[in-house]
Amino acid sequence: MDPFYWLYKYQSLESGWMSVGTILTGGALVRLSGAQLLPLRLAGWLTIVAAIVLPYCALLNREQRLHNLHWLALVFGLMGYGAFQEFSPGTLTVLLLSAIWVSATKSQIINHHGFADRQKSQLATAILAGIAIAIRFPNILVLLVLLPLWRKKSLWLVPITAASAGLVYLLGYLFVTPAYMDPSMGSHGIMQMITKLWENGAKVLGYALLWLGVWAVYQVGGKYEIKNQRFAIINPYMPLIAGIVMGAFLIYYITFVPAIHQWYNVDVTYLISVGCILLALMTKRRELAIGVAILMVATLGTDTAWLKLFPAAVCLFAVAASRMEQEALRRYWFPVLLGLTIAVMMRFSVNCIGDYNLRYCTVRSSVAPYEHIFIREVDEAQLKQYKADYDSLYTPYTIHHTPIIAFGQDMHRMRSVTGCQAARYNEFWSNIFDSVYTAKYREIIEAERPIVFCSYSPRFKTKPTYKDRHSALEEMLRSEGYREIDRSKYKYMIYIPDDEKIQ
After folding, report:
1. For residues 5 and 86, what is the distance between their CA atoms, to the nearest angstrom?
2. Among the four 115, 440, 444, 500, which has the fewest Cβ within 10 Å?
3. Domain ranges in the chain?
4. Is pLDDT above 70 for 189?
């Protein structure tokens, strides 16, 4: 759903003030590469790659980078597919926060290079913070981390941040169409987001305790001591053995404990993210503590809460692992993290965002905007049916100025494939089972008498509350004199107004 929502936004250059910078960037990309998913996926993936590589290259010297390439390789195994199927405020936020971390760290550690260098890094941090705010407005909370670093003598950076954000908003004013968003139809209310953080906090804490248990195994199995200020291993093979044991445990845990068909592999992403954060904090290095605080901003202002720790927290991994100075630690953590990486890649291969195994994606789609992407045969058939139905209805009905509108959970994808009009409020969610939601559209249905493509999720249909009955939207359409064309085989229905003018 998300990629199609943003694709529409980029095509129409339509946005509210919360994500103007993203719409400008995505709009430029779509005009260069075309309104296709594949270029947007590549852009999203490259954005996250840049976010990971940037601190690795900027915060480590040449020798450290060459010596620790194996840690960087593990990062790309941990990435999985994650958030890389879209180019959105989330992916751009990770890149901007990573860049802010680098510039903020450099402004703290280059005192010996001179005051001028420190000011340049601070200026870069302020400009990047302003752009990050325009990309996704909740990123303004990064100032809670930056202001203590800047202190009183550096408060001149605040107007620089404001000016940077203001310039992007000015460009948005010139090129972006304002979009109305009904807040009652969304899931991004402040209390809703706080509740989400609270509800999932226990699970995040649980994975933190699991990682501390992994650390306890090292403390027992790979015990070490310091003698004469030199590091000496009691048993040189114990850390390696302990690491292999824990790596095998993680493979078992990820393969068999979390449910296979979890949305976005939520438990696995929590496990990865929390592990990266704890590893960063265990190094006891100031630059990594700053990185944790800055990258945590990605979780704020979103209805998915802690899920957005991934892939932001992954940006910490290669730098944190490279900062481990004791060889025993390296011998222990490499098999642990290698085991984690193998398990993650196995999980991601059998769970494409909670729907199906990637090995079932055998058909190269010929339907825009899916062109050149491998999908399931049943999904290709659905897309073609979308297009065939829309094309068959477009000419005979639109000649009478009858609009064709899409509703339901799949409406953004349906619109991208067919060209259906946007719903009036252009909301992200479209819960056709919600009577409050439906009531907002009764006036439109009565006045405009549109043709309605109504998609639904199989998950709704299997819930006891909704099973074997029409949604609130469908019941309303029936009461308004609409007739039904059954496309339930393809998980949608078509409703046509039974009016004399279009008989």
Report:
1. 10
2. 500
3. 2-179+188-350, 374-502
4. no
